[in-house]
Fold:
Amino acid sequence: MAATAPEQAGTSAETQPRQPIWLRCEKKPFEHRSALTPTTAKTLIDNNFEVFVERDPQRIFDDEEFEAVGCKLVPNNEWPSAPVEVPIIGLKELPESTDPLPHTHIQFAHCYKQQGGWADVLRRFREGKGTLYDLEFLEDPKTKRRVAAFGFHAGFAGAAAGALALAAQQQDGGKGVLKGLKPYKNEDAMVAEVSEALEAYPGGKSNVKVLVIGALGRCGSGAVDLFRKAGLPEDNIVKWDMAETAKGGPFQEILDVDIFVNCIYLSQPIPKFITSDFIAQAGDSRKLAVVVDVSCDTTNPHNPIPIYDINTTFPEPTVEVDTKGVGKRCTVVSIDHLPTLLPREASEQFSKDLLPTILSLPQRATEPVWTNAEKLFKQKLEEARVEDEKNGISA
Structure:
């Protein structure tokens, strides 16, 4: 039965009301990460929070781990029935629906950059009079950097998936396809498998060359770290950032490596890094075999890698690029929740970084990290209203 009434949120006449927060289950297939972990949940409880946790067999952390630190377990996917004053925290976007959203949601919503279906998502908040604090836009007011991000583990896992896809291509006379990916027990297990797989590349791993764009950021540094730990020579890891891309693409240098990993944060239109026509023009001289788009802005109209149009999945990690019948195969890894390949480590790091912000949740009416995020939400809400009006949808 769902929590109801303030009594279950821990209030009494003698104590200060406890701040409730509700960790919902994740409905995205194969998503094993968690916005809160037993470690961070315990810290919240020790600081006058009441933590409700939905039972979730998909989550990397067992229900019993949360229960052991004092969380209150509630049924799976029960959050729509939670008291409206209880903030709901999760990671990935909610399943598609037209149901109004009256709660406060803390999550990645992927609807602020006019991605596919963005207005539909925001319409649910408008109709339900709820609030969205998008995790992507919770920023430190001084540094303007996100308070928490999965970037490092996204880059690390993306580089691993790209390396495994490259190795798979060498099988069956160049027709090999990377089979399903599954979460690793830990980082060491991932690195060991990647290192062994690259040894099967013609000439061994010393003959593999990679390019990471966005190498100075969290995501890019993760990709570079994986390639180093897997044993690639430093000279074979080409690291680009804003200075190198300032000249504008398409870039020949991308065609000259085996694996290209895109780790940029796209905030405005930029010249394309690579196109299908550019790939075809290179003909047999092209070395590029695998593209990993960690940024995964598939539906963004300004996507700088318009050589694919679907998100791939763990069961089917790659999609073929149309090379116009010229040159060898090229595949793209475009999984939009790569860090779940290292779910426990990625969750612990993210939740630890997010913790100070969650601890300030009772002061969200005055704390800049929250007030700025709410201001942005209201701005996007208005943009969505205007878009609906333009399309004949009543506001």
Observations:
- Residues 368-390 form the longest helix (23 residues).
